[in-house]
Each structure stands twice: as C-alpha cells, then as structure tokens.
Write a structure and sequence with these properties.
The protein is mainly α. It contains three helices and no strands.
Length: 54
C-alpha cells in the first residue's frame, strides 16, 4: 500500500521492480508491531521451527 499509492511510475517495468523491492523490505527488514517487532520472515521461520519440533 505505502509503495503503490504514494509513487507515480513511468513504466510498468519500473512499477514491478519498485514493488518487488518494497515487498522484500516489508517481509525481510521492516519490523511489525503485530509480530512482536519481528519481520514476517522471522516470524514465519520461528513458527516453522516450533512446528518441526512438535
């Protein structure tokens, strides 16, 4: 949402590249308060370890 609606893109290729970069940032770098300050990737990895240990 933040990336798509706050920017104007000159080409579809530019939009795809920029959105892909933002998704990487959102999932791998940006902490989320709803996930106890973890990134979605960290949260998923922690969940997967718990499931595999059970």
């Amino acid at each position: 949402h933040e990336e798509v609606y706050l920017k104007a893109y000159d080409t579809v290729k530019q939009a795809k590249q920029s959105i892909a970069e933002y998704l990487d940032f959102y999932n791998m770098i940006r902490p989320h308060s709803s996930l106890n300050k973890a990134t979605p990737n960290e949260f998923y990895d922690q969940h997967l370890l718990k499931v595999m240990a059970a």
